[in-house]
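Re: that backbone. Tokens:
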């Protein structure tokens, strides 16, 4: 008998992801296929990454063409794909805000690296003694030592102490708590506009505006972590656009390359000026294949008006989910939704176990808290696929309520 992918994984890879349940070999749009040929609808997008769906023909062609043209020369030289990505990102970040001055972009390879670079940038901007960063409890900002320290989940800190100092946390959606947590050592507030990994926790009306005002009063920089929420996912180009505020620094990654690793930091020209030659760097960051993927992603997203698709399909999906008896409430924005499971469905189960039952039935979602599923289909998902996916979910939840879940 030949070993399964999961068995070989357990023998050969570290255990930090547990043992993944199955092996995917192919995808197209919203669909995924495993090594036995079974079809799945992907309502997770590799953690809000493949916003344009799997194997997008234009992104695939852009990657292939760049791979046969120029793959790498380092940032000691200009490479062309970066230039258009930076221009488009800058324009989209400032769209609908009162910021008419172009900012500057720094490329990275991932979300954590983008946040790490942003943390270094604000330290350099304010100088020593004002290096503190205040973020929210239940936030998620990455797994490097610095971004882990910024992440507001103390249980994730414990095994890795001591972490870099200067990080503190306040209660999400409580501006008074943020104000109380400030002292002169704090130079920046770092927030997701909608908490993703922490449970799909939206900002309450007015919270981001109050935080912006607090930053202006105290001379603090506001860093928006748009790694999960950015590039249309919430129904706006960036999550902070819903609040009608300005950003000093914005970080992006996940959807930027539609699966090819690339991250970026945007900052206002004044803040960006804090980095001079030699202050930061990364061998691969913004390398041509990744940047060519991002360039095509942004071109396609602008052509199809990705935020509008997320808004329209998001309304449809929310309506479909709210009709399922096994779901007690739906939260989130656009196509980044959290579905709270009804107690009768859960019984002795957790949401991650329900997500496994969905997988067995052909639907990819994940448990984002013990009681809620994260649902994040591609922005290109069709209305028919939303109906099909919620039907699968409905059947799984009905089986759960009847005590017959797989
Ligand atoms: C995923 C995520 C990160 C980390 O990105 P990686 O590419 O996994 O390092 C940081 N912040 C937020 C909000 C995220 O969702």
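Recovered sequence:
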């Amino acid at each position: 008998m030949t070993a399964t992918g999961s068995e070989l994984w357990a023998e050969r890879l570290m255990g930090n992801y547990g043992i993944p349940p199955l092996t995917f070999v192919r995808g197209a749009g919203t669909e995924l296929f495993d090594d036995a040929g079974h079809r799945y609808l992907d309502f997770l997008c590799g953690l809000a990454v493949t916003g344009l769906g799997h194997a997008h023909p234009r992104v695939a062609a852009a990657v292939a063409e760049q791979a046969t043209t120029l793959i790498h020369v380092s940032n000691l030289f200009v490479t062309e794909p970066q230039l258009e990505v930076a221009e488009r990102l800058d324009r989209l970040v400032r769209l609908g805000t009162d910021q008419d001055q172009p900012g500057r972009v720094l490329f990275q390879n991932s979300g954590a690296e983008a946040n790490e670079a942003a943390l270094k940038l604000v330290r350099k901007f304010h100088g020593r003694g004002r290096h503190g960063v205040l973020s929210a409890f239940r936030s998620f900002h990455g797994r490097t030592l610095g971004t882990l320290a910024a992440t507001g989940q103390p249980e994730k800190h414990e095994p890795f102490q001591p972490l870099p100092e200067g990080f503190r946390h306040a209660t999400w959606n409580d501006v008074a708590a943020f104000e109380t947590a400030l002292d002169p050592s704090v130079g920046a507030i770092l927030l997701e506009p909608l908490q993703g990994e922490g449970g799909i926790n939206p900002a309450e009306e007015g919270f981001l505006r109050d935080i912006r005002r607090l930053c202006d009063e105290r001379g603090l920089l506001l860093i928006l972590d748009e790694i999960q929420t950015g590039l249309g996912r919430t129904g706006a180009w960036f999550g902070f656009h819903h609040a009608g505020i300005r950003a000093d620094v914005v970080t992006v990654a996940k959807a930027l390359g539609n699966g090819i690793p690339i991250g970026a930091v945007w900052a206002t020209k004044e803040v960006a000026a804090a980095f001079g030659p030699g202050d930061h760097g990364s061998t691969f960051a913004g390398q041509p294949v990744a940047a060519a993927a991002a360039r095509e992603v942004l071109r396609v997203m602008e052509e199809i008006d990705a935020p509008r698709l997320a808004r329209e399909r998001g309304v449809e999906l929310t309506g479909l989910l709210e009709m399922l008896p096994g779901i007690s409430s739906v939260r989130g924005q656009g196509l980044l939704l959290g579905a709270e499971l009804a107690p009768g469905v859960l019984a002795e189960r957790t949401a991650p176990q329900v997500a496994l039952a969905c997988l067995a039935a052909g639907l990819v979602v994940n448990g984002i808290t013990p009681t809620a599923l994260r649902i994040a289909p591609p922005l290109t998902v069709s209305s028919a696929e939303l109906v099909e996916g919620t039907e699968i979910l409905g059947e799984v939840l009905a089986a759960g309520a009847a005590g017959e879940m797989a």
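The two ends are 25 Å apart (CA to CA). The first helix runs from residue 5 to 12.
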